[in-house]
Amino acid sequence: MKRAVPDLALFGGAPAFGEPLRVGRPNIGNRERLLARFNDLLDRKWLTNNGPYVQEFEQRLAARLGVEHCIATCNGTVALEIAIRALELSGEVIVPSFTFIATAHALQWQGITPIFCDVDPATHTMDPAHARRLITPRTTAIMGVHLWGQSCQVDALTNLAQRHRLKLLFDASHALGCTWRRRMIGQFGQAEIFSFHATKFLNTFEGGAIATSDSNLARKIRLMKNFGFAGYDNVICLGTNGKMSEISAAMGLTSLESMDQYIIVNVDESGARLSRDQLVSLLQAENIIARRYFYPGCHRMEPYRSNPAKAGYQLPVTERLAAQIMALPTGTAVGAAEILQVCELIKFIVAHASEIRKKLSARRAANRSTGAAVTKTSPGNRRNTRAPSVA
To answer: 319-333: per-residue pLDDT in tens?
Structure first.
């Protein structure tokens, strides 16, 4: 318990936690059931190529999402790439900048230009009005991204895509189990793509999936994720190796049996009287390894920031959120007592913000006079949940 500002670890006190609490610690689920599945698949000696665990995982996901088809893949980025190619996208695709870089890279990797759209300040998802202004004759699709368990404005984006005869797909990495107007995410657009990376609340070690109710599209995706094979020695189209392994599917089935959420915080500097980066530095010194999120925005990363055509992007909401969003350690690796302690520490820091700001200013002045480097926080990964404000 911190009783005074000098007790904070950044100012010389003992860290609140002896071992780091990290964002992204994997949820393991029931270890006995997981190991039983591992032993079963090893005994069966069927480790990949559409094994029974992959088939069961796909069936259970499709049933949970309420879609006809769910195709498991080796990771979420490959799922995006395959869906993009299966939908025959080209030219330009409108996508938010406030997302994990893989969303944009999956387009650029295939020679498609991501056109960065600003986001709604309330939901942090694509602003349909701005998306409409970005449509050109080269636009072939809109790719929305659900964030923190908050859905895109699905109806507005659907209407926009239909009016301009564009394809519509969604990066749903943050939205498994969430809904839009009582319909499960996974049911919208031509396809929705999920990630089951180890940092996700439901993970398969590494994995992804494409959900769709378009049977023709599902058939193309299944061919493309397995080199284009339509049978033994019968390759009928271009493809890649995007298959999920049996051991990943076994982990996924175990994860489905124990699903939890994660915490994203929106730091309002005017209310908290501390910036997001200052709060991150204070928490990291306490061994609470909080992370910046989607900083500084895809449009500020390479190769996009060096593209002269994109140099004039005006994304004010994205810029503001990139300076405010913070991820906290949660999940099964963090117990209720630790969560309470983290919350109490944040409350203490905000309550003593004025004194802390003075001490931070004094540290900066001392660092400048001695030429010492100022510690910087590192950018964060993607997470799943809603975003409360710290004020």
So the answer is: 999 999 999 987 777
Find the angle CA(80)-CA(81)-CA(84) to the nearest 5 degrees. 85
Q: How many CA atoms lie within 13 A of 110 on its CB side?
A: 23
Question: What per-residue confidence (pLDDT) applies to 66?
Answer: 96
Give the SS3 label for residue 386: coil
Domain-by-domain residue ranges, the chain?
5-23+262-390, 31-256
Is the pLDDT at 38 greater than 90? The verdict is: yes
Taking alpha carbons only, the member of 94, 50, 55, 61 closest to residue 187 is 61
C-alpha 17/C-alpha 111 separation (Å) is 47
Say which DSSP state 235 is in.
B
Name the pTM for this structure: 0.87
Q: Which CATH code of 1.10.287.1080, 3.90.1150.10, 1.20.1250.20, 3.60.15.10 fits the domain covering 5-23+262-390?
A: 3.90.1150.10
Domain 31-256, architecture per CATH: 3-Layer(aba) Sandwich (3.40)
- What is the spatial distance between Cα 23 and Cα 76, in angstroms, rounded to a whole number? 19
